[in-house]
Each structure stands twice: as structure tokens, then as C-alpha cells.
Amino acid sequence: MGRLKELRRRRGLTQEGLANELGTSQQTISRIENNEDMIPTDLLVKLAKFYNVSADYIVVLTDEKYNQGGGRDRLAHYIERYGDEFALYDKLSPDNQEVVKAVLNTLVHASENGKSKN
Description:
Helix content is 72%, strand content 0%. It contains 7 helices and no strands.
């Protein structure tokens, strides 16, 4: 399945690494990713939890990765979308993190003020 391979690669995992995380074999992951085998239900649940996506997304019943409305789903969306930026932010000193927060707040306020003037 293309989606599973994409999710795995985005996490920087090999098939063997994913198999170890989920308590299965590399061969099982390979067969599933290559559409040679169906995903056992217990493994589908583990995959959905591991990647924090819906099972429907994994089996291509929807293009929506996350269930709507849940706080964890929104957080997972932000982590996937801005994960690289989060990692860079985490490498900054506490003082520089405060600078980044101040800049973001300034930009948000400027944007809000600009919208209210239109």
C-alpha cells in the first residue's frame, strides 16, 4: 500500500524498524506494503495508533488522515505539517525560543490588525 510506505518513510523508518516497533516481521510489512497480503485487524489498529491516523486512511477509504474534532488529531496534524520546524525550535536556546515566540506573536497581531482595517 502506497500510504503505508509513505507514512513509514516520513518517520524515517525501515521496514525492519517499523516491524520492531509493532512487534511483527519485516516480511509482513513488506507483503502489506506491496499489496501481497491483507492487513490483519490487530496490525491495522497498531498502525493507526502508531501513525496517529485513522484506519480508514490506511485502507484508502478516505483521504482524511485524522478524525475530525479531536485535540490529539489536530496536534498530530500540526506535528506532521510542521515537524521539521518544531525540531529546529527545540534546538534553540530558551532565550532564542522566547525571541521566536515574540516574533510570531507580533506577526499574528499585525496580521489581525491588517484584517480589521480592510
